[in-house]
Give the backbone structure.
Amino acid sequence: MKLYYHPASTSCRPIMLFAEEAKIPLDYELVDIFTGANYKPPFESVNPNHLVPVLEDGAFRLTESSAILKYLAEKTGSDAYPKDLQQRARVNERMDWFNTQLNREFNYGFIYPQIFGFMKRPTEESQKVQVQWGKERAAGWLKVLNDSILGAGNNYVCGDKMTIADYQGAAMVGVGEVAGCSFADYPNVCAWLGRMKALPSWGKVHEAISGYAASLKGQQFETV
């Protein structure tokens, strides 16, 4: 199987981490999204959305990070995607929540406009409004993650066992550290993220984004 990817992509890292931890062999093909390779041949024929990741399994091609995680887990019979109907539904629910709630407003609404120049708003005033609005919304979703999804008794987002929802969510939340977020106001989030970062492959998979974070050292960002 081949994965078209970029190591700094928040959508790619969950797949990379899961594959490394589960010992799933993948052929990695780099798509340099920072030079616009995702908008040029030959990749534009691979994914007309111009996005990574893309998984190829023979003649079968699959896009969307969440779908790829589920496919790999199902294909390999991983316990990280339980067979029980209700347990699996909970995993699907958490993955949808990360995608449609937290990621949208924490990363796209708050973190990305600060750390990526191409996502900053066109004027100083509009940037300020965007970041403040994003911060307020992000804080609300982090509170839900801390108090309700994790709570005091859950080690992982679906209970006591790590699932593919944790791989997805940890990558999304972890982006905040690039801007200096400590999550000190969210102790359950801190503890959960610490458990995920203790995975043997975490450092290797996050090497590129950690390097980017180091390049931003000294800059001031709004944080939670």
DSSP finds nine helices and four strands in the chain.
